[in-house]
Amino acid sequence: MNRTISNNPLAVLISIQVIMAGTFLMTKLGLREFSPLALGVLRFGLTALVFAALLGMKRMYFLPDRKDRWAFLWLALFSVPFNQGLFLYGMKYTLAAHGALLYAATPIMVLCLSCIWLKERPSVLKIAGIALGFTGVLLVLFEKGIDLSGQTLKGDILIFFAVLTWSVYTILSKKMLRKYQPLQVTGYSLMFGAVLFIPIGLLPILRQDYAAVTWSGLSSILYLALLTSVVGYLTWNWALSKIEASKVAVVSNLQPVFAAVLAWLFLGEKITHNFIIGTVVVAIGVILTEKG
Predict the structure, then answer these.
(1) What residue segments make up the domains of the chain, in order of their start?
(2) pLDDT in tens, 71-115
């Protein structure tokens, strides 16, 4: 990346949230035609091929130091089998809005883990910013409608543990990014993660009815693999290499806001006063966390 972009990792991360905002909707779309495990294998199989090509083009293949090999194995496990196994099954049984709401807890989990493992010092501004960001997400999503009847409880629990595994992945990545390049950390974790995921999803892949797959299902795989996994994950780790983990994590609270804006642009859904207030609160939270 050029010098101007490198000096503004937060701006790049914010802009990429537009892509990440579509992840929950595209996952629900893909799950209409694929089982969770089949969708995961196809998504990360394509992701692994792209990263293999990128690492080859950049001549960035390497053998990790002996003491780091277990760390890369854990990165692979947390990024794909653990995180995506829980996420994909969770999204099958819950609503897209619930998934976005639960992932809004990521900054809180990352902040706690950062204090324990990375020795980050949580200033009052940072804590206030993260709390405001979560409050803003609540305002936005409750305005969109959240089902509290308990019918989605199974999926919500799975998504909660998916958020926990993503938070652990973020902290582990931050530690490895002190030594390796973002493309190397992201590429190796997702390539090895895809290999570990294949045995889990092999039977669903063989049983998949490919004749019934439409352009809608195919587009969901392309979106999740190329935009979410390649562009989104790589940008996430690149930003982690530049700024503190908790500052990176709080930006993810913009995803529900951007998702609502996309719904307004393409589906004609109304923008209400509560949504505007929630958006402002999220923005203030991001700014306070960055300043903190």
Answers:
(1) 3-291
(2) 999 999 999 999 999 988 888 888 776 777 777 778 888 888 888
How many CB atoms neighbour CB 1 within 10 A? 12
Distance CA 236, CA 277 (A): 27
| Cα 25 from chain centre | 13
Instruction: Provide the whole-model pTM.
Output: 0.82
Residues 6+ apart with CB under 8 A from 45: 194, 198
